[in-house]
Amino acid sequence: MSTLTETKTATTSNLARAKELWNEYLPYWFMTPMVLVMLLITVFPGVYDLYLSLVHYELTNPATMGTFAGLSNFRAAFTSAGALHSFGVTLAFVGGSLALETAFGFVLAALVTGVKSDRMQAFYRVAFILPMAVAPVSLATIFRIMLNSEVGVVPYLIATYTPFVAPNFLSDLPLLTIILVDTWNWTPFMFIIFYAGLSSVPDTLVEAAKVDGAPLWRRYVHVVVPYMKPVLFVAILIRLIDLFRTFGLVFSLTRGGPGTATQLVSINIFEQGFKFVDLGVASAIAIVYLVGIVALCNVLIAKVGFDGVWD
Amino acid sequence: MPSEHTRRNLLRAVGIGALGGLAGCTRGSMQSGGSSETSGSTGTGESGGGSDELAVPLDEYTGADIDWKQFEGTTINIGAVNHPWVSSIKPAIPVFEELTGIDVVWNILPEQQFRTKRLTDVSTGAGKFDVFFLDQVVNQFAESGWLQPLDPYFDDGSLYDEQWYKPDDLFEATTWQAHGGGYSDTWTGMPITVEVQTQFYRTDLYEKHGLEVATTLEGFRENAKTIHEEESDVVGTVGRGQKGYGMNIYVLNTFLREHGAELWENYPKDSGLDTDGAIAAAQWYVNLLREYGPDGASSQTWSDVLSTMQSGRAGHIVSDANLFWPNLIDSSSSDVADNVEIARVPAPESGQFGPNAYSWQIASSKNAKNSKQAFLFMLWATSEPTNTWMHLESDAAFSVRRSVWENDEFRSRVGEKFAQVSLESLEVAKPDPFDRKYPEWGQKYSEELQKAIAGTKSPEAAMKRAAEKAQQTFQ
Questions:
Q1: What pLDDT is attached to residue B111?
Q2: Is the predicted ipTM greater than 0.95, yes or no?
Q3: Cβ contact B295–A150 (<8 Å)
């Protein structure tokens, strides 16, 4: 009898302990499925990518597939596979696009915030967001036609309504062209974030600066922008990461050309992996690229910081 | 050259940009219009035609000494790109199904997506596709051991009847490509379409300026020059300048071989790209486009070339797929429909006529479970009865069989001149040899050529660098 009671007591105590453990670690249990999914979709591909970068993995050369390659894929990436050049092109593209998108996005947001009528504000919000809704490949196709020197509307407008000679956008100014097209496509993203940020700037601060006699530009430089620093930083960081991933728009517009003038790292990786089917070299470039982007973002976060974002 | 743009031209260009189905002109490109369609257990598509009456009488096939019914009750999966060949053959699929008792399931995708899916299917050994479209990567696939060589099936008396199939009716250029362009001793697949390069010109401008159709490169250059200089809003010629192994080099290789040069004079040590003939060809093509071509010729794809000609803003297409023809003479999309004519590609005065040609083929994977059934399908699809029917009953004009091009009814439908020029060109066509590294060195070669067309490099320097890069891919 006593044994039964002891068993019951022990069971009750185990259940209570389990319940206690469950409650104690409740947030972690809820996180577990997500963590597992993340492991599956990020950690596993990452580790596999690292493995591929260290072995010979040219699909058309089955004899050497899977054999240890040391750092030869990395060496090939920088010598014959043009990784260095594509990193340079990517930095120019990302820098140019980010600067323009940030500037235009902020100016547009400031202008729309200044519109008095709510209806007109709503209209502008929708109108300025529209370009973001176009898929990159469709956008590239449209721009290819619009920029065509023979049948395109852009050279026509330049030749007709300006004193300038229309340039050959895709052959003479390829890098600038892809920057401008991306700017057209993604300025709305910056606009909408900045618009939200500007809407949150307290009127009292701006009014106070006004009363103190600060002109418009000073109110922006010394009041609005510092107040919006966290918003600006987050928007720039998100867009920066996204710009590094650009592929479809540029590939469809120029295929990385003329020559390799617009060969972004993403296009280079695609060519190495899917055209030349050398997954080892493609993975090596991807690893270097990933490490570079993570390092850059960490430096930015460390130097500029998220001050104010989490307050 | 001053430009004159009209709203109509712009709208037309938009329409042309949406064209997704021009046969064979999408190689090496990202043109991916069209639908993704599957059928059978996965989906939404169709598995053949819908009519109760068979398109082709069965006795066209039953006379062959082939055991058509040996795989009755099985199913084959076909992986295909969204291509006019598919729409042309689909109504005849019930004939195959009735003849063999094999069900056909289509998996149709836009070109780029198809390429990725095909690579995954064969490289992982999944073998989902029993039959699939194959292009320039033929030797990449063959040497990786992914393809099912078809010779054992050709040797199998129950699967093949030479007398009925008439393999000699296939153009040599197409069977050569089906043998890996000289890099395979066996059949790697069977050709389903062929296109050959031809010249297109404006008859109204020829009449106006008293020009003669050029058979030589020198004559062509003169014609292009006359139109370029005499017409205010028309360029002398257009041609592919965009990089990509199916783009600018696809056109240049015609002139390269006509100049007596050869790709891979000594494979894989000497690419032949820096020989005198190859450099002369590059100089001719680059200078032609730079002097008498449109601004920004280096970024022109096949669709740009076509749209510029259709909009009446070019005097010629120097050399491109004969399959442009239906689009050029279609008055609903072409301003020059009544004023365009086709001719053989010009050749150097001291050279030899030898236009480039290209075939899509269908092949089977080594891991496919139904390769024999797939072979029966390939045989049926490329046979004379099926090919003739396809070309008489649809808009198709890409037959790999000589008999179709000689068929009076077909010639009457597509036009005598088009048929004759295509036939003459196909008889002597010299296609590109796609070795296993072709996608890599072809891409680099095309990049160098694009730089020359863009004017950032001389043609000679570009070809020498192309030769170096091509040879480096084998080190």
A1: 85
A2: no
A3: yes
Q: Which of A61, A155, A170 lies closest to B299 in CB terms?
A: A170
Answer yes or no: do B295 and A152 touch at CB < 8 A. Answer: no
pLDDT of residue A149: 85
**pLDDT one-digit tens code per residue, B367-410:** 999 999 999 999 999 999 999 999 999 989 999 999 999 999 99
Chain A residues touching residue B440 (CB < 8 angstroms): 275-276
A207 touches chain B (CB under 8 A): no
- Residues A177-199: what's their mean pLDDT? 96
Q: What is the pTM of this model?
A: 0.84
- Which chain B residues contact residue A257 at CB under 8 A? 242-243, 298-299, 447, 450
* pLDDT tens figures, B165-188: 999 999 999 999 999 999 999 999
Chain A positions touching B444 (Cβ under 8 A) are none
Assign 3-class secondary structure to chain A.
CHHHHHHHHHHHHHHHHHHHHHHHCHHHHHHHHHHHHHHHHHHHHHHHHHHHHCECCECCCHHHCCCECCCHHHHHHHHCCCHHHHHHHHHHHHHHHHHHHHHHHHHHHHHHHCCCCHHHHHHHHHHHHHHHHCCHHHHHHHHHHHCCCCCCHHHHHHHHHCCCCCCCHHHHCHHHHHHHHHHHHHHHHHHHHHHHHHHCCCHHHHHHHHHCCCCHHHHHHHHHHHHCHHHHHHHHHHHHHHHHCCCHHHHHHHCCCCCCCCCCHHHHHHHHHHHCCEHHHHHHHHHHHHHHHHHHHHHHHHHCCCCCCCC
Which of A156, A259, A276 comes nearest B450 by C-beta?
A259
